[in-house]
Amino acid sequence: MRLGAGASIGSTVVLGVLIVFVLFAGVLTSSVPVLAGKCGAANQRPCTVFERVPSCDRGLVENFALKKCDRPAPKRKPAPKPKPKPAPKPKPACGALNQRACTVLERVPSCDRGLVERSTRCVAPPKPKCGKLRQRPCKVTERVPSCDRGLIEVRRRCERKGNCGALNMRPCLAIERVPSCNKDLMEKSGRCVSRPKPKCGKLRQRACKVTERVPSCDRGLIEVRGRCERKGNCGAKGQRPCLVIERVPSCNKGLVEKSGTCVSRPIPKCGKLGQRPCKVSERIPSCDKGLAEYAPGTCLPLQCGKAGQRPCLIGERVPSCDNGLIENLIEKKCKAPVKAVCGALNERPCKVSERIPSCDKGLFEDFDLNKCVDFQCGKEGQQPCTITQRVPSCDEGLVEDFKLNKCIVPVCGALGQRPCLVTERIPSCDKGLFEDLNNNICAAYQCGAGGERACKVTERIPSCNKGLSEVQGRCKKYDCGALNQRPCLVTERIPSCDEGLAEYLNGKCLRPDCGALDQPACKVTVRMPSCDRGLRETADGMCVVLKPGEIPIFATLGDWSSELAKVAEGECILALEGLPSPPSGVGGLASVQPQQLKYFRIGFTCGGLSKLGQLSGYTSMIQDMNRQLREYPCSAMTPPLRPVCALYQTHVSTVGAAATCGMALAKGGMIRSAGGTVRDTWLGLGKMAWVVTDMVKGGNKKGKDGEKPAKGSKAAADAKRGVMDDMLKNYGLAINYTAAAQRTLNGPLCEGVEP
Prior knowledge:
Blueprint: H1 2-35, E1 61-63, E2 68-70, E3 116-118, E4 121-123, E5 151-154, E6 157-160, E7 185-188, E8 191-194, E9 221-224, E10 227-230, E11 255-258, E12 261-264, E13 291-294, E14 298-301, E15 326-328, E16 333-335, E17 363-366, E18 371-374, E19 399-401, E20 406-408, E21 433-436, E22 441-444, E23 468-471, E24 474-477, E25 502-503, E26 509-510, E27 535-537, E28 543-545, H2 552-564, H3 569-577, H4 594-607, H5 619-629, H6 642-649, H7 657-667, E29 671-673, H8 678-688, H9 714-728, E30 733-735, H10 739-745
Antiparallel strand pairs: 1-2, 3-4, 5-6, 7-8, 9-10, 11-12, 13-14, 15-16, 17-18, 19-20, 21-22, 23-24, 25-26, 27-28, 29-30
C-alpha cells in the first residue's frame, strides 16, 4: 500500500512537470513567427536555438562580446618570404693598371678611371704638352682648365695674365681689364701703340669727336657749329649769339638773334591805338592797356565796362565792369549797386536776386508779417528754439533744460565742477580738462607739459604740448630740427628740419644757399619744393615773389615761353642730339625706327619752344612736363635746358593730320629733303607736327568747276598733294610723286588732309 501510494504520488508529480513543459514549449513555439524578424541580421542579436539555426544570416558570424551578428574580420595574408640575395659575381681581373683591358661583355669602360687602353692593356695616359707658358691650351678631353694657374688663353697660346696693355704689348682681354690699352694708347694690329694727336680742339679748329678725345675743345673754348671758339665772346652787337650752356638770353638786352648775329631789336609797330594787334611772338597782351583787339585786326578803345555802358566780354577784359560797378543782367548795362532796404530788424525780407540769406544774422523771416523779426527763444531764461527756427536751440554757453524747457547756464564742465551730461553739452569738460571718473569732476591733465609724463591716448592727442616731443615716456623740448642742430628722427617729428632748412650729410640742419628770394632754386637732391613758401622758380632758375592769384607752374610756363623763344633752333637741336632716344613717341609713331623717332621728337621739341605759352589748356601735358622737370636727366641740367629736356621727354598723344600723312610718306621713302638725309627729313616733319592741318584750307588742285574731287581718285590725291606741298616747302621738304605716293595720299593716314 505504502509503495503503491508512493508510486502514485511520484507519477502525479512527474505528470504535472510534463504538462508544464509541454505548455511552455507550446508558448515558445507560438512565439517563433513573431520574433523571427528581430534577430540574425547585421547588428541584430543572434537567434536562439528555438528560433532558428543558424543563429545569424549567411555571411555573418556571432560576436559573443557584443552579442550581435557581425561580419567576419578579413583574413590577413601571410607576409611574403624574402627572396634570397644573388651571390656576387666574381670581379674580372681586368681594367686595373697594367692589367688587360676588359671586354664589352665584362664591363664598360674597359679601363679604370684615369687609365687609357693601349695594346690591349690599361696604362697611365701620357702627360699632354699643353697648358704651360707659351704652350698651346689643353683641349677639354685633355684637362680643365686649359692653362696653368696664373696664365690665360690668348690666340691659342697660354700667356701670363695681366702682362698686357703697355706700349708695344698685346691688348688686354675683356676678362683682364677695360680698357684694353693704357692711357693715350690705342689698339692697332694686335698691339698697343701711341695714339696720334688729332688736329682738333684748338682755337678755330674743328671740334674733336668722342672717339678722339673728351672734351671736344681745349679749356676756355666752346664748340660752336662744329668749331672751337672762345667761351663768352658772344651776345654783343655784331657778335655771335651765346649758346644755351653759355648764358640765357643769347643776346644782350635790346638785341635779337638774326642770321647767326646779334642785331638791334626792331620796335614792332603794333598794339597802339589804330595799329594792328601784336603777335604772341612780339608781345603779350596784343594791345595797350584800355584798348582791345577788334576786327579787322585793329586796336581800338574799349566801349564797355563804364557806367551806363554794356558789360565787357571775356575776350575783351576781366572783370566785365569797372571797379564799384556791377552787371545789371536785366538792362545789360554796368551800373552802381543799389543798397537794398531789406533784411534788417522789422524790414522786409530780401529777395533771392538781392541777397542770400533774406534776413540778417539772428533774425528770421516771418511769413505772416512779411518782416525780419528776432527770435524769441534761445537766450537765457527763454524757451529753446525749434529746428525750424534755428540750430543750435540755445545761444553759445547755454544748454537746454528739458525739465524746465528753458535755456540755462550749465553748472558743469569747468575745473572742479561735475562733467556735463550728453544732453547738456559735448564735450563734457572744458578744453584742456578731462573727466575724472573716480571723483566725478573735471580735472586738469597732469601730463604733456615740459618735464611731465606723456599723455595716454585715452587722455589726449598729441601726447605732448606743441614744441615738445615724447622721449622715454616724458615730454622734453626738441633738441633737433633747428639751425645747426641734428635732424629729428621720424619718431620725433616730420619734417626732420625746420622750414627753410635742409638736412646735410654732416648730420646737421643748415640753411641751403638756395630757395630764398633772389637766390637760385634748390635742386631736387637738396630739398622740395625748390623755393621758399610764397616764391616760385623762374626759367633761369631763380626764386622770385609769387604774385597774388598766380599758379606756380603756369607762371613758370610763361617764363619758359619768353626765355626759350630766344634760344636758337640750331642750338636746341645740337643740345638734344646728345640725349638718348625719348621713352615714348608722338601719336602713332610706334612703328617708326628709333633714329627717325629721335629726330622727329627733336624737331617737334625745337619747333615748339615759341609755342609753350599756348599750352595752358593742355593740363595733362603740363603736369607731365612738371614731373619730367624733377626727374633725371632733366633735373641734372642747367635751368635754361630743363624745359627743353622736359618737353623732349613728355608724351604727346596726337599730332596734326599733315604730320601724320607726312610720316606715312616718309616711312615709304616718298619725301625728299633739301639736304637729302634722313635727319633733315624727320626734323622737318617734327617741326610741322605743331600745325593743325584740319584747320588749313589750301592747295591749288581742285576738281572740274571747283567741285570736290571724288574720294580715292587721282584728282583727290593731286588736291591733297597741293596741300602737303604748300606745307612741306616751309621745312625744305617735297613729295616724290609716284603711284605709291598717290595710294598713300588716298589712304586712311592722309584722310585728315582736306583741300
